[in-house]
Amino acid sequence: MEVTYYGQSCVAFDFKGSKVLLDPFITFNPLAKDVDVNVLSPDYIFLTHCHQDHVADLKNIQSNSGATVVAIVETAAWVRKQGVPDDKVIEYNFGGTLSLPFGRIKMVYALHTNSTPEGDYAGMPAGYVFFVGDKKIYFAGDTALTLEMKLLEDLQLDWAFLPIGGHYTMDVDDAIKAAQFVNCKNIIGVHYNTFPPIRIDMEEAKRKFEANGLHLHLPKIGESIVL
C-alpha cells in the first residue's frame, strides 16, 4: 500500500486497490498547480472538517468519481447540500468505527474549529485511525497538541500524519510531542508551506525530529511513499 501527497492536508491512499482521498484541496493551492484533479478517482473521500482548505475540490472530485464521502455528522449534512446523493454519504461520530471493504476506520478527537465555507456550523473537527491489514495509520487532521492523543499510544501505530505548520495547527515542536504522545516514530508532515503563516524551514524540522529519535517524511507534491 502507498500514499501520495497532494499538498496542504490532501493525501491519497492506495490500500491494495481501494483508493481513499482525504481533505481535497488542490485546485486553489498554488503549490499544487501541476496536479490535475480530474484524473483523481477515489472510492472514498474522508473529510476531517469543513474548512475551505480541506473541502474545496470535494464536489468536483466526487462528481467525477462517484466516491462515497465520509465525515462527522454535521459536516456530512453540508456534503449532502452540495448535491452528493444520500447513498454516497456516510456520517458517523467520535468513538465510532466504520467497517469498509479495505479495513476499519475509527474517528478520534481533534482540537480545532469547524465551519462550512459559507461560515455555518459544521460540528466538530476529527481525526481518523485506519486499520488496514497489519498497518495502523493515524491521520490527525487539523489539530492543536492535546492530551487526548495519549489515548492512541497503545495502538502501536505504524505511521502518523501530523500538521506541522503552526499558526492554525500544531507547529513542529508540538508535533514532536504529539508523535511521542501517540508513540509513533514514522511521521508524515502535512498542513505546511501553502500560505505565508504556515511556512516552515523543512530541513530544520527534519533535524528536530531526528534529534528526538523520530523520522519526519516531507514528500514533494505528487510524490508517493510506500507504507
From TrEMBL:
Coiled coil: none annotated. This is Metal-dependent hydrolase. It comes from the Bacteria. Keywords: Hydrolase. The lineage of its organism: Bacteria, Pseudomonadati, Bacteroidota, Sphingobacteriia, Sphingobacteriales. It comes from Sphingobacterium gobiense. The keyword Metal-binding does not apply. GO terms for molecular function: hydrolase activity. PANTHER family: UPF0173 METAL-DEPENDENT HYDROLASE MJ1163, UPF0173 METAL-DEPENDENT HYDROLASE MJ1163-RELATED. NCBIfam families: PRK00685.1. Pfam families: Lactamase_B_2 (PF12706). Residues 7-191 form the Metallo-beta-lactamase domain. The keyword Hydrolase applies.
